[in-house]
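Quick one, tokens below. Sequence please?
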């Protein structure tokens, strides 16, 4: 029943069914995703994949968001998905560690640019259908599925992307079941990739697989009609927990979309609370005129997931440093900022930062939720500064303000495509609900892009 139930719910969902908080959060999520996807093109791994794929990607009308380049929708879904997650700066569902927007938005925008005449309202409705799919599916198997080592964002992402694209394709009920089922067999992503080039690839591939599955369903590819709930289907094969019936019964009654949150810092979400605390301690230390070179000890008492996910004492790359509480502490105290710049390879190699990171330790405490932390720093003469972060910035109870989101977007995007284009992109994403054709959104900034150098390879390959 579950696959059929999801297909039927998604196909009947209309813009008018979406509550105002759902629409608002969907728009914010797409805006935040857009900033990450455009800005993410600065990372070498994105250029590397693009360079390698040039001989295989077909010409098309879908936009690589951070550089001048138009290719077929499947290739663009992969590239924008990769770029949107590479900085680990995207979004997080409160009740699971799913970063929901990446797989769905990356597939849906590329697909809409191919299709043409997709209105902002239809786009948002399909986006919400995809988001709800991912999060309900994730809740049905969390935490067992995640704890065994699956990267839950991508394992549910292909299904969310298939549902979203399938909706725009106006699939029949049965075709949608096949689309869901075909997406579900393309399971991708394990924790072993965290901190490496492979992690953002999970999101790109999930987007691409989802789009592929919807197109294949329209084309007539058949398979299991009950691919999610079958005894040997997705839920039962990838998880020892199966609560899919209960969660799918509340599709459209409880909206997971409103429980999405945006990352304040470009690193694993469990580091946000301790970073918040260390940045506060830095402010106190500056006020008291304490010297950072006198620091002898840095600690955090946090949820044990910080140790499970980020206990890397000696990261060698910016991507690895996104999973290192040692690096996070050192940059928070020495620089007082955690933006993509502080997670670059160059900053990771900085010897002052490396030296301070050796003084950091974390104590896991199950009674502390992952949005809280107690941090403490010992300075010379035994002076101790400490603080308790009850609700980290960006958590559900302390969400990023519109102003923070604007600054975050413009900072990422201006660096990649210039300030003027960044302003256009910012406004276009926030006002998408009124668009008659989603192609207008990307035109506001991609049409003015000039050729940009990649860090690796020949920049001319981007120009079609
Ligand atoms: C791109 O769009 C143009 C104009 O609408 C159309 O003529 C062309 O066939 C499209 N190209 C592809 C590959 O879809
Ligand atoms: C989009 O709609 C316009 C106006 O109705 C029509 O002329 C055009 O052919 C449509 N394009 C596509 C790709 O469906
Ligand atoms: C969608 O498909 C249904 C049949 O499944 C058809 O009645 C309807 O007209 C289609 N809508 C669009 C916009 O193509
Ligand atoms: C299954 O999901 C329902 C609906 O959210 C929830 O009330 C229930 O506690 C869940 N059961 C398990 C075993 O997770
Ligand atoms: C290393 O980081 C410190 C703290 O931000 C900074 O003062 C110093 O200039 C950096 N050193 C190099 C070589 O970049
Ligand atoms: C810092 O203090 C903690 C808790 O007292 C201790 O476990 C840790 O070893 C100390 N670290 C250093 C570098 O002294």
């Amino acid at each position: 029943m579950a696959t059929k139930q999801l297909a039927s719910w998604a196909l009947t969902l209309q813009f008018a069914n979406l509550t105002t908080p759902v629409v608002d959060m969907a728009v914010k999520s797409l805006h935040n995703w857009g900033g990450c996807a455009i800005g993410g093109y600065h990372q070498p791994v994105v250029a590397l994949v693009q360079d390698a794929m040039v001989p295989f990607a077909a010409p098309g009308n879908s936009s690589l968001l951070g550089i001048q380049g138009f290719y077929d929708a499947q290739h663009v879904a992969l590239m924008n998905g990769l770029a949107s997650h590479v900085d680990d700066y995207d979004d997080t569902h409160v009740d699971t560690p799913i970063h929901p927007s990446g797989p769905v938005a990356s597939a849906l925008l590329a697909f809409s640019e191919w299709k043409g005449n997709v209105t902002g309202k239809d786009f948002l409705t399909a986006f919400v259908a995809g988001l709800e799919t991912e999060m309900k599916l994730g809740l049905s198997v969390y935490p067992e599925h995640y704890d065994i080592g699956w990267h839950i964002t991508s394992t549910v992402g292909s299904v969310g992307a298939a549902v979203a694209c399938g909706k725009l394709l106006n699939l029949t009920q049965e075709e949608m079941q096949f689309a869901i089922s075909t997406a579900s067999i393309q399971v991708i992503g394990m924790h072993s990739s965290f901190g490496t080039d492979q992690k953002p690839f999970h999101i790109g591939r999930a987007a691409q697989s989802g789009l592929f599955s919807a197109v294949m369903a329209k084309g007539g590819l058949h398979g299991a009609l009950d691919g999610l709930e079958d005894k040997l289907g997705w839920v039962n094969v990838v998880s020892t927990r199966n609560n899919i019936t209960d969660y799918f019964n509340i599709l459209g009654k409880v909206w997971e979309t409103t429980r999405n949150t945006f990352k304040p810092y470009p690193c694993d979400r469990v580091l946000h609370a301790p970073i918040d605390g260390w940045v506060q301690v830095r402010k106190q230390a500056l006020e008291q005129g304490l010297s950072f070179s006198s620091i002898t000890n840095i600690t955090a008492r946090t949820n044990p997931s910080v140790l499970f996910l980020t206990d890397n004492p000696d990261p060698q790359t910016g991507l690895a440093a996104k999973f290192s509480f040692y690096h996070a502490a050192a940059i928070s105290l020495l620089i007082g900022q955690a933006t993509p710049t502080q997670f670059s390879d160059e900053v990771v190699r900085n010897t002052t930062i490396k030296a301070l990171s050796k003084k950091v330790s974390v104590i896991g405490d199950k009674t502390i939720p992952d949005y809280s932390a107690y941090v403490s720093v010992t300075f010379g003469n035994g002076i101790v500064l400490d603080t308790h972060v009850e609700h980290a910035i960006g958590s559900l109870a302390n969400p990023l303000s519109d102003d923070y989101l604007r600054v975050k977007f413009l900072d990422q995007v201006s660096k990649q495509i210039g300030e003027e284009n960044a302003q256009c992109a910012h406004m276009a994403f926030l006002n998408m609900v009124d668009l008659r054709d989603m192609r207008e959104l990307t035109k506001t900034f991609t049409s003015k892009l000039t050729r940009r150098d990649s860090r690796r390879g020949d920049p001319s390959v981007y120009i079609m």
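The beta strands are 59-63, 70-71, 91-93, 260-262, 297-302, 360-364, 373-378, 384-389. Residues 59-61 surround 2-acetamido-2-deoxy-beta-D-glucopyranose (ligand 1) (CB under 6 Å).
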